[in-house]
Amino acid sequence: MRIARRALAALLLPAPAFAQASARVVVIGGGFGGATAARSLARAGIATTLVEANPTYTACPFSNAVIAGLRPMEAQRFGYDALRAEGVSVVHQRATGVDATAKRVILADGTVLPFDRALVSPGIELRFDALPGYDEAASRAMPHAWQAGAQTELLAAQLAAMPDGGTVIMAVPPNPYRCPPGPYERASLIAHFLKSRKPRSKLLVLDAKDVFSKQRLFEAAWAALYPGLLEYVPLAMGGRVTEVDAKARRVTTDFGSHEGAVVNVIPPQRAGAIAQAAGLADRSGWCPVDPSSFESRLVPGVHVIGDAIIAGAMPKSAFAAHAQARVAVAAMVAMLRGAPVPAARLLNTCYSLVAPGYGISVAGVYRPANGVLADIPGAGGTSPLDAPASVREAEAHYAEDWFATITADAFA
Amino acid sequence: MRALALALLLMAAPAFSQEAPLGASTCLGCHSPVRADAAIPSLRGRDAAEVAAAMREFREGTRPATLMDRLAKGFTEAETQAIAAWITR
């Protein structure tokens, strides 16, 4: 059917479509944003190459459930065979540079990939220079588990091995960072793990800020489900971690120091390495983009999506990366045709689990305004504070369904 | 033969993602066009007028929802109708 459609399109579409059909796009990064974009570009008849170092993608959403022993790691892994089957050329190499003037991407082995337009979906890079004592070596003792994979399994193993009666410490960074409600979902599910498996243990959450996503919902759930087990310390109460000692599993705050049986440090972040190398990031470490086309404001002809961008009100989430991929591809196809960029409207939905069968959500609708993506007033918001258990259960169920759908759309 | 080819073309054309009306392509983050067993329903093949009516009720708060009441408020009636026509195709 697809081939028949292509043949018909080639036969019947007017002349400008032929120029577009021969256009080449290189996509760097095979996460939710990059995989969705590559697939959408190929479906639009564009010769698409996806550059992704890893042969398997490990998804972050639901990885907190893996950490808490509620979900197998295999459920997080996805491959690229379906993209290949749709005609995407998938190259498992690391991209080392983007030459926007010569319009080519350079790979680690020296391969050069020419493009008419490029799309970079680089995700995040953890900053191992931002928190004294926390470098890559320290992350092997105090896992961040903020990029899913070996780190996820390390934190899960540490929790499984710790003695009952120990203290788990989480250090949560200031904004902006990947997945705004993620640390609080993780705190909830670790608390659930401790409550059911190691009930004499405690969880201490040290936060570098005072307000966070879905805060009232999380705090109400913590008070109901994990009283005396989960202690949350905001910035104003000395929650900011200023230094860590990986050997001693000790963290220092403005007000004192704490030692943990398990310490999870989520460090500050910036756009992924290729964004820095390609000059797509500004001094903040993140990438400024046009909110309608997602074209870089620093490097013309190169589009950037996902966690790496400065997106205004839109959060750094898998849903957002997927939505931005769709909108960026529509813009790129139009630009390759010489047509105007379509108007943009984007959705986001983020589910969090506070316990098995207890889900909460935040949603938003966004449009370009004043050069960034702005909330549409009156739309969006969080689950109600007073919802019955049946609604929490439905949202937990929908969270799993969302994951199945978005991973199918990107990878299956 | 020519009529068949045109009919096929008309069927196939809206499948290209760039032709989605304002906001519609990002609905696919939850509403799968391919997962028939999904709890969040696929809207493909549904009646467009019914989908638009449901969205109106979500927007006005007269239809029970966990989340669609919050998202529906981000679209006007005309925008909703265009999305409904596209997502049910």
UniProtKB/TrEMBL annotation, chain A:
Keywords of the record: FAD, Flavoprotein, Signal
Ranges of residues in domain Sulfide dehydrogenase [flavocytochrome c] flavoprotein chain central: 152-267
Pfam families the UniProt entry points to: FCSD-flav_bind, FCSD_central, Pyr_redox_2
InterPro entries for the chain: FAD/NAD-bd_sf (IPR036188), FAD/NAD-binding_dom (IPR023753), FAD/NAD-linked_Rdtase_dimer_sf (IPR016156), FCSD_central (IPR049386), FlavoCytC_S_DH_flav-bd (IPR015323), FlavoCytC_S_DH_flav-bd_sf (IPR037092), SQRD (IPR052541)
FAD/NAD(P)-binding domain sequence ranges: 24-136
The Flavocytochrome c sulphide dehydrogenase flavin-binding domain, residue ranges: 342-411
Signal sequence range: 1-19
GO molecular-function terms, A-Z: flavin adenine dinucleotide binding; oxidoreductase activity
Protein name: Sulfide dehydrogenase (Flavocytochrome c), flavoprotein subunit
Organism of origin: Falsiroseomonas stagni DSM 19981
Lineage: Bacteria, Pseudomonadati, Pseudomonadota, Alphaproteobacteria, Acetobacterales
From TrEMBL, chain B:
Residues annotated as signal peptide: 1-17
The keyword Transcription regulation is assigned to this record: no
Xref: PROSITE patterns: CYTC (PS51007)
Residue span(s) of domain Cytochrome c: 7-89
Gene Ontology MF terms in the entry: electron transfer activity; heme binding; metal ion binding
Keyword entries, A-Z: Heme, Iron, Metal-binding, Signal
Keyword Translocase: no
SUPFAM superfamilies: Cytochrome c
Record protein name field: Cytochrome c553
Lineage, broadest ranks: Bacteria, Pseudomonadati, Pseudomonadota, Alphaproteobacteria, Acetobacterales
